[in-house]
Design brief:
Layout (H helix, E strand, L loop, with lengths): L2 E6 L12 H10 L4 E6 L8 H8 L3 E5 L15 H15 L4 E4 L1 H5 L1 H8 L3 E3 L4 H13 L9 E5 L2 E4 L16 H4 L3 H6 L2 E3 L2 E2 L10 H5 L4 E2 L2 H14 L4 E4 L10 H12 L4 E7 L6 H10 L1 E9 L3 H6 L6 H13 L4 E7 L6 H14 L5 E6 L1 E2 L5 H8 L14 E2 L5 H14 L4 E2 L8 H14 L5 H10 L13
Parallel strand pairs: 1-2, 1-3, 3-4, 4-5, 8-11, 11-12, 12-13, 13-14, 14-15, 15-18
Antiparallel strand pairs: 5-6, 6-7, 9-10, 16-17
The protein binds cobalamin (B12).
Length: 479
């Protein structure tokens, strides 16, 4: 047994296609012991599977399952049936070699997916060690069933072994994404993903990150990260590099070290990151980020209401959030803000507190994305609250997207307030309007080319949006 075929099943393009970083890390980790090929099904919905299987004749196939759904509470998309119909079933018709599942969606719902996809094995949480150990056991004729993180079938039951969280620093191979797959579409539409740490020690009540990555931060050496970016930038001049860490600026000091290492090893690269936690935003950090090449950040407070900050289990205080917003504004760092409404305790007054904060503290040139409803995942504090309040039952599997929205406002009540709020605030987008319409996007691209604009795309889109007739009478938010 030596040939391992790894398949990306993620066809989602919202907000843009994301390259299969996890799968590429696995490919790099396995290549010493196995012959590995990555098949990227992102753009052909499984049409290239036959060629990939017949051309490579794998001994084992690994599928990555990333998204369950798109987190949109009403009218959202559910991906798992499509993955089964477009990838798993055709694959089973093409080959009978062992099928191994992994990825974030699998780690959230391993038993359901093992059953629904009829898979032979699975790996929950990170895969570099667990998947390699599983493959070595299969190769050597040993039973992998007791290995940490491995999901197996025993006596007709699915058994999920707890993953082993390796202590100490995070040491990963270079993902070399563009060497494993055709990176061209991602380069045009998205970014080159880089991971700087795993784990999250925060206690946000709805979040799955600690379940997927562990609660203890494991940090990659700053010089290793900068070295990876420098190498990839040499192969892909002009590409944007994106950090995929759930919180980029935690624990304190690591982000600063990464920025300094990038200035030294890869000057002039373009960088972006999600997950800048308001808890640790300082002028020093933003200065270093700008020097390293960050042209914009995403900041994710979820709420600015003191009651909701507490209720959501956020790690920062209202004062800390205020400080972060002021630093972001004085340092003029273009920022996309994320607010999530409808959590336990939300009512009209807490929504008003967040809107008031947006008006007072967030630059009208920055974008505010407003979400409604918190996705309920198993084994989270929110799940326990929803059980207690009878919103879900103990037998609900939660694979079917289920959202918490605090009664009595409920989804419609929150939505009404957000749509009302967005009507007079051109920089606030309510749920459902988070993707720019294609016409506006085209105009923005033309405007950027014509005027030589180097600002972040969202700022160009906001200029166009402010000129919409519907905002003609809107009072501008106070500066
Ligand atoms: C960064 C991130 C983003 C960034 C991506 C930026 C980029 N350029 O990649 C942005 C903000 C764009 C984004 C968008 C979305 N995201 Co997102 N994102 C993440 C995040 C924080 C990290 C993902 C990541 O890259 N991890 C690092 C890699 C190395 O880890 P990995 O992929 O999990 O791979 C490891 C293991 O899973 C395993 N493994 C993976 N594949 C396989 C295969 C086999 C065979 C085996 C054995 C093992 C294995 O081994 C790998 C290496 O250790 C995760 C949460 C999390 N902490 O995981 C959410 C997460 C993946 N996102 C999620 C969602 C829903 C989305 C969106 C749909 C949201 C939206 N409506 O916009 C979109 C979809 C984007 C798309 N086109 O697919 C959900 C998915 C679960 C769900 N509910 O469906 C997650 C889990 C967050 C959550 N809510 O819990 N996301």
């Amino acid at each position: 047994m030596k040939r391992v075929l790894l398949i990306n099943t993620n066809t989602c393009r919202i907000p843009y296609p994301v390259a299969p970083l996890g799968l590429c890390l696995l490919a790099s980790a396995l290549r010493e012991d196995f012959e590995v090929r990555v098949h990227d099904g992102a753009f052909d919905s499984g049409a290239g599977l036959a060629e990939a299987v017949q051309g490579f004749r794998p001994d084992v196939v690994g599928l990555t399952i990333r998204n369950v759904d798109d987190l949109i509470a009403r009218g959202g998309t559910f991906f798992l049936d499509q993955v089964r119909d477009e990838f798993v079933r055709p694959l089973r018709a093409l080959t009978s070699v062992p099928l191994v599942l992994g990825g974030s969606a699998f780690s959230l719902f391993p038993a359901h997916l093992m059953d629904d996809y009829g898979a032979d094995w699975g790996v929950v949480a990170e895969g570099e060690h667990a998947f390699r150990d599983l493959l070595l056991a299969l190769r050597d004729g040993r039973d992998p069933g007791d290995l940490p993180g491995v999901v197996s079938r025993r006596d007709g039951r699915i058994v999920v072994n707890p993953p082993r969280c390796l202590p100490g620093p995070l040491v990963t191979p270079r993902a070399e994404v563009d060497l494993h797959i055709d990176f061209t579409p991602y380069r045009r539409l998205g970014s080159y993903p880089v991971q700087a740490r795993r784990g999250c020690s925060h206690g946000c009540i709805y979040c799955t990150y600690p379940n997927v990555e562990g609660r203890v931060y494991r940090l990659r050496e700053a010089s290793d990260i900068a070295g990876e970016i420098a190498e990839a930038a040499a192969r892909l001049p002009g590409a944007t590099f994106e950090f995929v860490d759930s919180t980029f600026n935690e624990p304190p000091g690591h982000a600063e070290a990464i920025c300094d290492a990038i200035v030294a090893a890869a000057p002039g690269v373009r960088l972006r990151t999600m997950g800048v936690n308001p808890g640790g935003v300082t002028a020093d950090l933003l200065g270093r980020m700008k020097a390293a090449g960050f042209a914009q950040i995403d900041c994710t407070p979820d709420s600015a209401s003191p009651r909701m900050i507490r209720s959501l289990g956020k790690n920062f205080t209202p004062d800390g959030l205020l400080r972060a917003a002021r630093v972001i504004r004085t340092e003029a760092m273009p920022t996309v803000w994320f607010f999530l409404f409808g959590g336990p305790g939300e009512d009209e007054s807490t929504i008003a507190e967040s809107l008031d904060f947006i008006d007072r503290e967030i630059s009208p040139d920055d974008l505010v994305l407003m979400g409604v409803g918190l996705r309920i995942y198993p084994a989270t504090p929110l799940h326990r609250i929803a059980l207690r309040e009878g919103l879900v039952g103990p037998d609900d599997d939660l694979v079917t997207p289920t959202f918490y929205v605090q009664p009595p406002l409920g989804y419609d009540g929150v939505m009404r307030l957000l749509v009302q709020a967005a009507a007079t605030r051109p920089n606030c987008l309510p749920p459902g309007e988070n993707t720019p319409d294609p016409d506006m996007l085209r105009q923005a691209v033309e405007m950027r080319a014509r005027d030589g604009l180097a600002e972040p795309m969202f700022r160009t889109l906001l200029r166009l949006r402010r000129a919409w007739p519907r905002f003609a009478g809107a009072t501008p938010a106070p500066k």
